[in-house]
Design a protein that fits this description.
- This protein is mostly helical.
- The protein has one domain: Tetracycline Repressor, domain 2, CATH 1.10.357.10.
- Helix content is 70%, strand content 2%.
- It is built from eleven helices and two strands.
- A two-stranded antiparallel sheet has the order 1-2.
- Strand 1 and strand 2 form a beta hairpin.
- Helix 4 runs parallel beside helix 8, helix 8 packs across helix 9 and helix 9 packs antiparallel against helix 10.
- The longest helix is centred in the C-terminal third of the chain and has 25 residues.
- The N and C termini lie far apart (49 Å).
- The relative contact order is 0.11.
């Protein structure tokens, strides 16, 4: 419910009813709506990570495969069961510390998975830079793609493809700054 309507768009009574619990029973498990939201935010991510680990015991998911899934139309259309980070990122700053901590934990764990999937030879700092960039770009691209999809489906698809290709394109880094090609430097 939080992913579909936002944390502030759902009341505790409604959540309790959907879960088949009384309002009081829900508060026995969670001391506040914030605690419930924090758990509801993190739990699907942990479950997806465990499911992915179990299904990929024989092989690791490649960075390319992650990108394909992260920037897919299916992911865009799956708001209710998709990644809570892409569904809720814009409202996390308006929530309490518990929800922000849950988001941060999920973000860090996904970055670690993305880093591990990058098989090209590069320094660890560069892998981290690429993983953080890819995940942050995906969250933003998904927000834009979802926002325009009802009015302009082709623009929505273009946003996902463009950002995916930008993240995918090979980069040469010197420290934390990308090296520019000679033509890019001379164009200045």
């Amino acid at each position: 419910m939080f992913r579909e309507r936002g944390i502030d768009g759902v009341g505790v009574a409604e959540i309790a009813k959907e879960a088949g619990l009384t309002h009081g029973a829900l508060y026995k498990h969670f001391p506040s709506k914030e605690a419930l939201a924090a758990e509801a935010f993190y739990h699907p991510l942990a479950a997806k990570n465990a499911e992915a680990d179990a299904s990929n015991e024989d092989r690791e998911t490649s960075f390319e495969e992650y990108l394909d899934a992260m920037f897919s139309i299916e992911h865009r259309n799956n708001l209710g069961n998709g990644c809570p980070m892409t569904a809720s990122a814009s409202e996390i700053a308006r929530q309490g510390a518990a929800v922000a901590a849950s988001f941060t934990r999920a973000f860090k764990e996904k970055v670690i998975s993305l880093e591990a999937s990058i098989k090209e030879k590069m320094p660890a700092s560069q892998k981290r830079h690429l993983a953080v960039s890819a995940l942050a770009a995906q969250i933003g691209a998904m927000a834009v793609a979802r926002a325009v999809a009802k009015v302009d489906a082709s623009l929505s698809k273009e946003v996902l493809q463009a950002v995916r290709e930008t993240v995918k394109s090979p980069r040469t880094f010197k420290g934390n700054k990308a090296k520019r090609s000679r033509s890019a430097r001379s164009a200045r």
